[in-house]
Amino acid sequence: MDAAVHTGASPLTSVSELRSFVRQTVEKTPVTDIHTHLYPPDSPQLLFGIDELLSYHYLIAEALRVSDLPYETFWELPRRKQADFIWATLFVNRSPVSEACRGVLTTLAGLGLDVSRRDLEGYRTALADLSITEYVDRVLAVANVRYVVMTNDPFDPTERAYWLSAGRGARDPRFLAALRLDPLLLAWPRVVPQLVVAGYRVRTGETGLDAQTLGEIRRFLADWIERLEPVYLAVSLPPEFAYPDHSGKEEAIRTQLIEEAVLPSARQYGLPLALMIGVKRQVNPALRVAGDGVGKAAISAVEHLCASFPENKFMVTMLSRENQHELAVVARKFRNLLPFGCWWFLNNPSLVTEITRMRMELLGTSFVPQHSDARVLDQLIYKWAHARAIIAEVLSHQYELLLATGWQPTRSEVERDVEALLGGYFWEFTGRRPGADRQDAR
Ligand SMILES: [Zn+2]
To answer: Which of 65, 73, 80, 163 is deepest in the core (most CB within 10 A)?
Structure first.
């Protein structure tokens, strides 16, 4: 390759040279995956392997849709039988042309398996000899992921036990925490007994929360922030989410929790608050984990939060396609807002391409194009292979437009921009680098 003789300062002067350098740079730049549902390698909750890949909730919804198997019968099957059913339904009886199905094949191919054999049993045994550490190393290497940010819920009994366990080993520095606040913000007052048992003197608050309760919630947040060392706080919210909201008792308490507990704690520790807005929970409860839907949300909640709390940082992703343009516009208005990812039902190449291009046209490189949302370790492989192809394509297209004006991007400028898109801008926004800055925040 003659690329080796070029220095970083040498400009890319032709479309073909530019395209191949962008593609190459996007492939080789490690990513910080800012939102996943993975767990530390030594946690019993970390999912991996072909049976977990096949019984991903995206595929459950797709398979049950074209089957007459009663939902309850499916849920009673052991995991391996669920995987058999999904394989037969979506990969044998039909062509696996959906994005989630293609993802399984990209993943298997990335792991070195021959997808043309269609050999489910073979895929089950192929990697059985790997230890979990080897498996994690293999997947992170193939996906070229440097850091994964998890979703850590201190109200989840299994997760809570893991983090409180004295026997837990040293942390894997590649797995970073995010402190998830859904139960606190969406299930008050049902979480009150749990907080009381854990030693926090909180009261339900019939007409709003008293000062002691708010102080105790901040103490709870401080304890978990110090325990997890999260890179941000996070909550997923329904499309009806509004801020401020005094329309009912529950809404007024949520507004108070945000203003007087969550945002002050976030400021104290210098942590962004991530809002994932637009999930309509349990549209079809019989589908259980696969039963959630989407709704368009009011962008005014994001505008009000960014305007009212300039000292807080907000990371926002919205689930509805209809919210994407206005979210990018709000991000132009507020430097304390970071739009991120093409979430869940948006994670399809046609939509990721459209959204990423629109964001780049409005925001340059000051956004996070994608997160994997991976629930199964192996999914990092396909989510990032597919996302990288689109990011490279969109970026190449924008550079091509620059080239047409006579502007010539240099190699080091391309590397700088790709690094920003694959994690650099996220770290700049949060004001920290993993491992380097823990002391600063205290
Ligand atoms: Zn998620």
So the answer is: 163
CA of 7 to the centre of ligand 1 (A): 40
Residue 150 CA to ligand 1 centre (angstroms): 9
Please state the pTM of the whole predicted model.
0.96
| The pLDDT of residue 436 is above 60 | no
Question: How does pLDDT run across 244-283, given as a tens digit for each residue?
Answer: 999 999 999 999 999 999 999 999 999 999 999 999 999 9
DSSP string, 50-115: HHHHHT-HHHHHHHHHT--S-HHHHHHS-HHHHHHHHIIIIIISS---SHHHHHHHHHHHHTT--G
Task: Give 85 Cα–ligand 1 centroid separation in angstroms.
Answer: 25
Half-sphere exposure of 133 (CA within 13 A, CB side): 2
Q: Which pLDDT score, from 0 to 100, does residue 6 have?
A: 81
Q: How far is the CA of 373 from the centre of ligand 1 (A)?
A: 5
Domains of the chain: 50-126 (1.10.2020.10)
- C-alpha 59/C-alpha 66 separation (Å) is 11
Cα 41 to its chain centre, rounded Å, is: 18
* Ligand 1 center from residue 431 Cα (angstroms): 23
- 235 CA → ligand 1 middle, Å: 10
Tell me the CA–centroid distance for residue 119 and ligand 1, in Å. Answer: 30
From the CA of 428, how far away is ligand 1's center (Å)? 22
C-beta of residue 369 within 8 angstroms of C-beta of residue 391: yes
Residue 442 has pLDDT above 80, yes or no: no
In sequence order, what are the beta bridge partners of 179? 152, 233
Each residue's pLDDT tens digit, 204-246: 988 899 999 999 999 999 999 999 999 999 999 999 999 999 9
How far is the centre of ligand 1, averaged over its atoms, from the C-alpha of 76 (Å)?
25
CA of 37 to the centre of ligand 1 (A): 6
| Gap from CA of 236 to ligand 1 centroid (Å) | 8
Q: How far is the CA of 167 from the centre of ligand 1 (A)?
A: 28
Cα(371) to ligand 1 centroid in Å equals 9
| Res. 167: pLDDT tops 90 | no
Residues 314-331: pLDDT tens digits? 999 999 999 999 999 999
Give the model's confidence band at 11: pLDDT under 50 very low, under 70 low, under 90 confident, else very high: very high
